[in-house]
Specification:
alpha+beta, Cytochrome p450, 5-stranded mixed β-sheet, 3-stranded antiparallel β-sheet, 12 strands
């Protein structure tokens, strides 16, 4: 038994819950060393508080067994914040099936090239107004994400700082509150109520602008941005589309509109920042990515971002799962483990993407890895990101525009975090 497990066992012998919290701290900090040790010595790591799954194959198994490992642990926080159930906190249910299908229609894949152009334009506007050194989180990546929320998702007439505050409060409670801090939970509930009040009012405002009659045709967004009072942003589509009833009333529209910002406002800037840092840490890849940003097309540049994120992804752990009945995980292997009913299960995406048995030489930066090695957006039923096709262009495009301006690291500067969220990261330009 080596470094981390020895420390864990020493503390767990007299205070198991403190030991489990200590592991959570390692995951925020030296996660590489911890996960490497667990993959080698204890791939399915059982603590009194949770079971941590670290191998590529085992993570896929858990996420592919949605009726065994359900998302029930996230329901209380999201339900309290939104005042109602949300598809991501429901498994293979009628609600999930119906609302996921509807939102896939609204997040039209035909929008991808236009959304990429919008993200690039927003990034260039931020960079045109910037001076060096630049805080790429607060002055570039977050503004790009918030502009996408405004112009494409349709969050009109709302201060960007207000939306960012609401989303961070809710996401902190759902994904960065392992000890169930009640102050964090209360802040999330309050912010969720304000977010929902805004969305209900905005839906009523949009409805009042609709022409009479059933024939409501929506246009797609344009490169100059969707019309402020039109139906061609996602919220406008939800407000104007002739949606069959089947339980999908105005409250369900507001809840799903809330999900657009909750799944994007924090995660997209975080991914941009972490990918950028990985490139800055590797002079050879940094130089090659900068050349590709300036000289190549997006298809040649984007792999730099996704390989950088494989090395340090934002969601190191997937949201927790609940084991509904006893289950033999990794059957037929030397580390097969019975996960007991009622266990909270954490899938370590960051570990899985660095599993030597599935990802050859994972410490190496390679652009030609198969797409299935990249688990940034999850995998399995219900766990794939709903807006993956949009995130796959918005995230690398913002980084690409930054590298075109000659972004370079500042000695001794690193990302400053607020809980799990990148909050500040200064780089030189030019």
């Amino acid at each position: 038994m080596s470094e981390y497990l020895t420390k864990y066992q020493r503390v767990a012998s007299h205070d198991p819950m403190k030991a489990a919290a200590m592991v959570a701290g390692w995951i925020r900090g030296d996660w590489r060393g911890l996960f490497a040790e667990l993959r080698a010595d204890c791939p399915i790591f059982v603590t009194p508080a949770y079971t941590l799954v670290t191998k590529f194959a085992d993570v896929h198994e858990v996420l592919g067994r949605e009726k065994v490992f359900t998302v029930r642990p996230t329901s209380p926080q999201l339900d309290a914040a939104l005042g109602s159930g949300f598809m991501l906190s429901r498994d293979a249910t009628a609600l999930n099936w119906r609302e996921r299908g509807l939102m896939q229609v609204m997040l039209d894949r035909r929008d991808v090239p236009v959304v990429r152009a919008l993200a690039g334009r927003y990034a260039d506007e931020c960079l045109d107004a910037a001076s060096s050194p630049l805080d790429v989180v607060g002055d570039l990546f977050q503004p790009v994400a918030l502009r996408v929320c405004e112009d494409y998702f349709g969050y009109r007439g709302l201060e960007s700082a207000t939306l960012a505050h609401w989303v961070r409060d809710i996401i902190k409670d759902c994904y960065a509150n392992p000890l169930a801090d009640q102050a964090l939970h209360a802040a999330a509930v309050a912010s969720g109520a304000e977010l929902m009040d805004y969305l209900r009012a905005e839906l009523a405002r949009r409805r009042a602008l609709l022409p009479a009659g059933p024939g409501r045709r929506r246009a797609g967004p344009t490169e100059s941005g969707p019309e402020a009072e039109g139906h061609d942003d996602v919220f406008g589509r939800l407000a104007s589309a002739p949606i069959p009833a089947h339980g999908f009333d105005d409250e369900r529209i507001a809840v799903n509109a809330a999900g657009l910002s909750l799944g994007f406002v924090e995660s997209a800037p975080a991914a941009m920042a972490l990918a950028t840092r990985q490139l800055m840490l590797r002079p050879e890849q940094h130089a090659a990515a900068t050349r590709a940003a300036r000289e190549a097309d997006a298809a040649e540049f984007d792999p730099y971002v996704w390989e950088a994120l494989r090395l340090d992804t934002f969601f190191r752990l997937m949201p927790p799962r609940l084991c509904e009945h006893d289950y033999l995980l990794a059957a037929g292997t030397s580390h097969a483990t019975v996960v007991t009913a009622g266990s909270v299960v954490l899938c370590a995406l960051a570990s899985a993407m660095n599993d030597e048995e599935a990802v050859p030489e994972p410490e190496q930066f390679r652009l030609n890895r198969p797409q299935y090695h990249h688990l940034h957006f999850g995998t399995g039923h219900h766990h794939d990101c709903l807006g993956v096709h949009l995130a796959q262009v918005i995230i690398p495009e913002a980084v690409r525009r930054l590298l075109r301006r000659g972004a370079a690291p500042i000695p001794d500067e690193d990302i400053v975090f607020d809980a799990i969220f990148p909050d500040r990261y200064r780089l030189q330009l030019g």
